[in-house]
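Hello,

Our lab assistant flagged a job as stuck in the queue for most of the afternoon. It eventually completed. Since we weren't sure the result was trustworthy after the delay, we are filing this so someone can double-check. Below is the sequence as submitted and the structure that was eventually returned. Let us know if re-running is recommended.
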Amino acid sequence: MNNNSLIRKLINNKISISVAESCTGGLLASEITSVSGCSKIFNSGFVTYSNTAKVKFLRVKKKTLKKNGAVSPETCKEMVENLYKLSKSKLCISTTGIAGPSGGTSTKPIGLVYVGIKFKKKTKIFKFNFSKKLKRKMIQINTVNKIFKICKNLL
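-- returned structure --
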């Protein structure tokens, strides 16, 4: 996962970044902060794994979680939009999904991940269906790599 070039680009362009992670468990923040100089642009990182944390720290509505579940485009969108309100970062990213090896259902299988990205006042939600045969760590790594690829295309 060498994503130094993106972080360098964010630093050079003074684009602040904040993340709200669930299924990636801090891996995205770790990737960003592994690059020297990132303190110039990395604002905040939340690992809101539980629904309680999503409500308490990111102000995701309990109603949204009850109606759609934690792994849903609706929850992902609230996570990233509320992160933006809290952090005021130019680039905000949220992740929620099912990394396995258990927890999947027929409608929300292992490997289902939603990524929210808010940049230049536009919010986009991306859906990924990684193979349920992948190990948990690989689903997390693949999610982070997809995020970096999307962000490289945005800048």
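-- support follow-up --
The delay was a queue issue, not a problem with the job. The result is valid. The longest helix spans residues 136-154. The chain has a mean pLDDT of 95.
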